[in-house]
Specification:
By secondary structure, this protein is mainly β. The protein is built from no helices and ten strands.
């Protein structure tokens, strides 16, 4: 059974940074593409960033240049480094394998 556990969320001021982590168990992590999604209140869940098993990345236009997705196959962990945070980045952030999801971690950007 695949399990994903996110951490690293919190309250941050506009312009600040946070790094989210997602620890994965029960899967052959190094062969698994990973993604980060987010869902803001009253909005649909949206794709934020993806990373393939070989490390190729893609980003939503709204976060390109501000967020970086990465992975550490030795630690079965995927990261989302978020910078220049904006109020509209406030959301619950989820990591996913595509068929399994974590419980989410809240990111709140507020002054």
């Amino acid at each position: 059974q695949v399990q994903l556990v996110e951490s690293g969320g919190g309250l941050v001021q506009p312009g600040g940074s946070l790094r989210l982590s997602c620890a994965v168990s029960g899967a052959v992590f190094r062969e698994t593409p990973m993604a980060w999604y987010r869902q803001a209140p009253g909005k649909q869940r949206e794709l934020v960033a993806t990373i393939t098993s070989s490390g190729s990345t893609n980003y939503a236009a709204s976060v390109l240049g501000r967020f970086t997705i990465s992975r550490d196959n030795a630690k079965n962990t995927v990261f989302l480094q978020m910078g220049s945070l904006k109020l509209e980045d406030t959301a619950v952030y989820y990591c996913s394998t595509g068929w399994a999801w974590g419980q989410g971690t809240q990111v709140t950007v507020s002054s």
